[in-house]
Design a protein that fits this description.
alpha/beta; Tetrahydropterin Synthase, Chain A; 6 strands; 33% helix; elongated; binds zinc ion
Length: 158
């Protein structure tokens, strides 16, 4: 039976939204929270995925951005300021909204989870504050021509 598991991750990070007309254009930080939820068929072990393995997959991505400034590459003001600052900065090709951060994690994590055949669905929820979140979710098992062929054969045998 399809079963979901989830684990919460937290990190501190600074950013700004240059296009924002109110407070978010200023350099500020959040205590980010991310929930990673995986849905799939439990293995013989009774686990969808060992929480320990989930942690060891996600932690390196968190470490990379923890206590960093997440900088949109097009933000030349911050790029110039940070260039020779020696401060921890991670450059990305998108405005650093919670929505885009969730999609960024989804893209990288879905690639890692894709080969794990029992997993079906990934949901990423990123919160900047206690009262808000952005969510991206999608299928991990995309039907390949091969699997369609298999389904068709199975149907013929019925
Ligand atoms: Zn913010």
């Amino acid at each position: 039976m399809l079963t979901s598991i989830a684990k919460e991750f937290r990190w501190e990070m600074a950013h700004r939204l240059p296009f924002h007309e109110a407070g978010c254009r200023n350099v500020h930080g959040h205590g980010y929270r991310m929930d990673v939820e995986l849905t799939g068929e439990p293995l013989k072990t009774g686990m969808v995925l060992d929480y320990f393995d989930l942690k060891s997959i996600v932690d390196p991505l968190i470490l990379e951005i923890d206590h960093a400034f997440l900088c949109d590459e097009t933000d030349s003001l911050m790029r110039d300021f940070l260039k020779s600052s020696g401060l921890k900065v991670v450059y990305v090709q998108f405005p650093t909204t919670a929505e885009n951060i969730a999609r960024w994690f989804f893209e990288r994590l879905s690639e890692i989870f894709m080969p794990m055949k029992n997993l079906r669905h990934l949901r990423i929820r990123v919160s900047e504050t206690e009262r808000t979140y952005a969510e991206v979710n999608g299928e991990l098992r995309v039907a390949t021509p091969e699997s369609k062929h298999f389904d068709h054969q199975a149907h013929m045998l019925e």
